[in-house]
Amino acid sequence: xxxxxxxxxxxxxxxxxxxxxxxxxxxxxxxxxxxxxxxxxxxxxxxxxxxxxxxxxxxxxxxxxxxxxxxxxxxxxxxxxxxxxxxxxxxxxxxxxxxxxxxxxxxxxxxxxxxxxxxxxxxxxxxxxxxxxxxxxxxxxxxxxxxxxxxxxxxxxxxxxxxxxxxxxxxxxxxxxxxxxxxxxxxxxxxxxxxxxxxxxxxxxxxxxxxxxxxxxxxxxxxxxxxxxxxxxxxxxxxxxxxxxxxxxxxxxxxxxxxxxxxxxxx
Length: 267
Fold this sequence. Notes:
8 helices, single chain, alpha+beta, 4-stranded mixed sheet, 4 strands, 2 domains, 63% helix
């Protein structure tokens, strides 16, 4: 069998197994009834505090196994964990809505202190690495505390379901936002074309006006040069004219009184 055909069959087999696993939603990302993951300081930070992890919400049960309230409330917590994971994680493969876990504070006391757990048992709700909800045992009767824990988990998970719907709406809005700039560009294209045309017209008219001023100034300079050259030529002609003037004409320029007093000039 050719290697390319074997590769194609392997891909088809992988897709078929993935499809079968997606169809079995009741067994996907759901803790077994009666057990949840037990986290320590390392696994806690790698899962609950990792904002890039594949789980949006974590609900963690903090307790010690030898404490009677923990022994009484833990079975109820495990049953609720299994039911809510099955409800909220169905039809999900790559991204999970919620996971439930527990921490043994007798083993990881430092971790429990870091999470500000003072009473046992205590439940903490984390969303994307941030603490968003807290419940602790009030010291009452087991039935009463069990009812309080049940109501608290139901309230927190209702918040989770609303948030999942908001995330879906937000993703659709994000797609609309990505499409919006293109629609905006198409809508403002005529205005942009008009602005560009107006700018081209302004530059063209401005260039013509500047060229006109340049031509006018060059003509003015030429006229001034011609006028100055003409006056200069006339000034050159004046001495020759003065040399050609007769004594009679010079005498006519003398004052009449001076001419009468001096009819005769002796040398």
